[in-house]
Design brief:
298 residues, alpha/beta, 8 strands, Rossmann fold
Length: 298
């Protein structure tokens, strides 16, 4: 069984939020639990709230930290900050330095997974374990299913479509329908919490546009040789009904990462299944972490 509607609402999640000062700006994150640190990285259009169910379920065995990427959530950056995947990966390293953390169990989804791979390639010593879900991998992105949205972004329509989703939540659920098995998980409150910060100002919209338009798969292709040397225990959990990232990429990752243990397919699930199937997903991570030898971090 899995928890379709995690216990933490936006108010409870906000109460867990803190911020860390880095050269990249004030990086927002939510934290709960004690023990070895697990760092959760979300993808485009969302924020750390994606992981609320995992945080709630795993806080008894991990110090769970869900970071808000540059240009997302409550993270504050300079107006013209770099939003690219390499910059995001460098931010994660700086963020961990600011918190005095050496190693983490890294968990990532969607574009956060592409960022996590670059971070892991550049900082293998900081990865205790790695969990990857449907995500940007090697040269598989930008996905064709995102082409229409990219065209809107290039035409300068990001603000108009984003504000329409905030004003018309039914339209927002329809827009996100390809990403969720049941878009009803996107309550009015959740939609506002995800999209509100992105549409807050012309500056925040511009940052989102730079993030989307900077998606260049050459950055992930470049680190492939380093990924082939990454021995950290790795678990790959992949939704099979994902229009963005085909399940074949899960097996590409398994073949590429020396530390890959297995691929767990999730029949019928879509890209944001870590939010929808939070209880089940947390159970799989719990099993994985329990099976691996871990060294507590600071």
């Amino acid at each position: 069984m899995y928890v379709r509607r995690p216990a933490l609402n936006t108010a409870a999640y906000t109460a867990l939020r803190k911020s860390a000062s880095t050269p990249f700006g004030e990086i927002a994150y939510a934290e709960k639990g004690t023990g070895p640190v697990a760092l959760f990285v979300h993808g485009v259009l969302l924020n750390g709230y994606l992981w609320r169910g995992s945080i709630e379920a795993l806080s008894d065995m991990r110090r769970c930290i869900a970071v808000d990427l540059l240009g997302h959530g409550a993270t504050k950056t300079p107006p013209h900050a770099d939003m690219s995947f390499p910059a995001q990966a460098a931010m994660i390293a700086s963020f961990l330095d600011a918190l005095g953390l050496t190693q983490v169990d890294l968990v990532a989804n969607d574009s956060g997974g592409g960022i996590a791979q670059i971070f892991a390639a550049e900082h293998p010593d900081r990865i205790r374990t790695l969990v990857l879900t449907n995500c940007d991998t090697h040269d598989n992105y930008p996905p064709k299913a995102l082409e229409q949205f990219e065209a809107i972004v290039k035409a300068g329509g990001t603000g108009s479509i984003g504000k329409r989703m905030l004003e018309d939540h039914a339209f927002a659920r329809q827009t996100f329908a390809t990403a969720y098995e049941d878009p009803a998980i996107l309550t009015d409150e959740n939609i506002d919490f995800y999209l509100g910060p992105l549409m807050e100002s012309a500056e925040s919209i511009a940052k989102l546009e730079r993030f989307i338009l900077s998606m260049d798969n050459t950055n992930n292709v470049r680190v492939q040789p380093k990924l082939r040397q990454l021995t950290a225990p790795t678990l790959i959990i992949w939704a099979t009904d994902d229009v963005f990232f085909d399940v074949k990429w899960a097996y590409w990752l398994k073949q590429t990462f020396p530390g890959a243990r297995e691929v767990i397919e999730v029949p019928g699930a879509r890209i944001f299944f870590p939010e929808e199937r939070a209880g089940w997903f947390a159970h799989k991570m719990r099993e994985f972490w329990a099976a691996e030898v871990t060294v507590p971090s600071k």
